[in-house]
Amino acid sequence: MTETTVDGTALWRGQEVRVRAGGRDLGTGFVDDLTGDGSIVWILFGAAEPRRMFLAEDAARYTVLPPTSIR
Predict the structure, then answer these.
(1) Would you state the pLDDT for residue 71?
(2) Of the candidates 60, 9, 71, 4, which has an alpha carbon nearest to the alpha carbon of residue 34?
(3) Prediction pTM value
């Protein structure tokens, strides 16, 4: 599967994404929640960190990663 880079309008809850904002790679996390229009996205980067909120004006880009399965 090819990775696709999108803005918040193309995301849904539970997707694993790599986040880039302000010219920096912020790491990999999961879409925890988002508004219906994708203008606000909350990413959960790790259990020890609080989730982080990104607004449309942050111009964050999200690279959608292929789903992983634990068996």
Answers:
(1) 41
(2) 9
(3) 0.83
Sheet containing 40-44, strands listed edge to edge, beginning at the edge strand earlier in sequence: 4-6, 61-64, 16-21, 24-34, 40-44, 52-55
* Residue pLDDT, tens place only, 11-35: 999 999 999 998 899 999 999 999 9
Whole-Å CA distances, 32 to 2, 8, 24: 22, 12, 21
Cβ contacts of 47-54, under 8 Å, gap ≥ 24: 52/26, 54/8, 54/19, 54/21
CB-based contact 1:46 (threshold 8 Å): no
Nearest to 15 by CA among 41, 52, 39, 40: 41
Residue whose C-alpha is closest to residue 11's, from 65, 68, 69, 70: 65
Mean pLDDT of 59-67: 90
